[in-house]
Amino acid sequence: SLGFQDVLSHGSTSLVTSYKTLQGWSSDQNKWNEKLYPFWEEGDPRWKDCWKGGRVTAKLDTDSPALVGSNVTFAVTLQFPKCQKEDNDGNIIYERNCTQDPPVSQDQQIYVYNWTEWIDNCGWENCTSNHSHNVFPDGRPFPHYPGWRRRNFVYVFHTFGQYYETTGRSSATFSVNTANITLGKHVMSVSIYRREHSAYIPIARASAIYVVTDKIPIFVSMFQKHDRNISDSIFIKDSPIIFDVKVHDPSYYLNNSAISYQWNFGDGSGLFVASSSTTSHTYTLQGNFTLNLTVQAIIPVPCKPVTPTAPLPTSAVTTGAPSNSDSSTAVESMEDNPDGGCHIYRNGYYRTGISVVEGILEVNIIQMTNIQMTESQAENSLVDFVVTCQGGLPTDVCTVVSDPTCQVSKSVVCDPIIVTDECLLTIRRAFEEPGTYCINITLADDTSQALASALISVNGGSSSGTTEGVFIFLGLLAVFAAIGAFILYKRYKQYKPIERSTGQAEKQEGLTAYLSNFKAIFFPSSTERNPLLKSKPGIV
Q1: CATH architecture of the domain formed by 218-304+339-357
Q2: DSSP-assigned states of every residue in 196-222
Q3: Interatomic CA distance for residues 461 and 304, integer angstroms
Q4: pTM higher than 0.85, yes or no?
Q5: Fewer CB within 10 Å, N- or C-terminus of the chain?
Q6: Measured between alpha carbons, how far is 309 from 158 in angstroms, rounded to an integer?
Q7: Which residues pair with 344 in a beta bridge?
Q8: Residues 442, 448, 539, 416: is their CA dihedral positive or negative?
Q9: Within 13 Å of residue 387, how many CA atoms lie on the same side as its CB?
Q10: Mind listing the pLDDT tens digit for each residue in 407-425?
Q11: Fold of 360-458
Q12: Which of 440, 438, 362 is nearest to 394 (CA)?
C-alpha cells in the first residue's frame, strides 16, 4: 500500500532523516487511501481527462524568507482553462461572452461542474455509503465549519517529512511556525484533488522553495535628491543620502521587540546607532566606500525552566547552525530582563559598495530678460534666462514649459552644452503664444541633475509694444527713485561718500536680478516654442 511519502514526494527522495514535529502536521509515513484518492505518476494518460475543457494548473507562493520562530505563509491558487471560473457557490462555470466552446446562452448558465446541484439533489450523505466520502486521504473526517460542503477541493501540503490536509475553494492559504524547522532551504509541495461522486480526482500539483534563517531579512533603499539614477549606487558629494531599512516580518514576529540599527558608512565617520529605520548621511569626500549595517532585535520569549539542583545562571548561550551569509556564526543569547522575563537576540546584516562623485547640487535663475525684435520677428517673443549652478559642471540642459500650475507640460527642449570653467550660462528660448507659464530649467550631468523654476507671463504683439512696456517700467522706477532720494535727504541732510565694497556690489547685482524678474512678471513678453541655439556666443 502507498504511504504519504510515496504520493507527495513526486519522485524525489527526502534527505531529512530526523525532524521535529510541526504543530498540526502528521508524519508522511502514514498510509494513503488510494481507493478514495487515486495516485497518478507524471505522464499517466488519465491526467488528460481529469478536468473538462483542459488542464488545471496551480501556483504556489510564499512570503519566505522567514526568521526562525516566525510564521511562513503559503498561498496556492488554481488557474482554470480559458473561459472557466468559480462562482459564489463554489461551482465552476463558463464565462459569458467568451469565445471558448461550448457557447454560453445569455439566458441560462452552463456549468463545468455543478457541485451545488449534486449536493442539493442527492445529499452528501445519501450519495455515499456510511459517510466514507467526506474524509481526507488519511481517513480523518473533514472539519464541519460553516460552508464546508461548498469547499470542493482537497489540498495536501508536504514538507520536512510531514503533511497537512485542508479543504478549500479555488485558493487556499495557510501558515506554519518555523520554530521546529531547521535552517536552510526547503521545498513545500501541494497536491490538489477535486470532488467526484465516488472518489476524488487529482487535478494539479505545485511546489515552491522557502528559506528559514536565523538572520533578520532586511532590505535597504537609498534616495538622494539630485541623484539621476538611484539604482547604480553612484551618489553625489555634499548632498544627504536617505537610507530606509525594511525588515521583512510579514507575520509580525518582531512586533514587541526592541530593534536597533548600527551604521558604518565607511568614510571614517565612525559608528552610528539609531532606533529609527530611516537615517541620512552626507559624504563629503569623493571615492568608493563600503556601507555596513547591523540590525539587532531583542525578542521577548518565555523563560526556560531552571533545574533546581543547577546553579542559577545569569545567561545561557546556544550556538545556531551557520547560514550562507558572509557574517560570522550566529549566536542566540537568552538573558533575564529587568521585568523578570527573558529575551533572545537576532541580528540582520547588510553590506554594499557606494561610489561618491562630484555632482550638480543647486540651480538658480538669476535673471530673465526680454529680447528686442525687429518687425519681421514680431510673431515670436524671445527671453534670455541667465542660470547659475553649484557643484559639478553640467553637460545637458532641458527646458520644460508647463501651465501656470506646473502640472501639465506643453513642450520640452533639451540640448547638450559645454561648460569648461564657471557654471554660468544664458539660455535663450522663443515663445509664440501669449499667456502665463511655468518654466522648469534642469541642468544635468551623467550622475546628477538639479532643477530651478520660474513663473513667466508672456504678451503677444510687436516689438514696439515690448519696448513701450520697458519704458513705462523705467519711468516708474525713476519716479520711485526720486521720491526715495527726497526722503533720504530730508532725514540725513548731509551727504557722506562711502566706498563701495564687494558685498554691496553683490547686493546691487541681486537687486538687479530681482527687478529684472519683477519686470518679467509685470511687463512680460513671451512663451516657448523652439530654441534658437547659439544665436550669439555664450547663449544656448
Answers
A1: Sandwich (2.60)
A2: -SSSEEEEEEEEEEEEEESBPPEEEEE
A3: 88
A4: no
A5: N
A6: 42
A7: 299, 334
A8: negative
A9: 34
A10: 888 888 898 988 888 888 8
A11: Immunoglobulin-like (2.60.40)
A12: 362
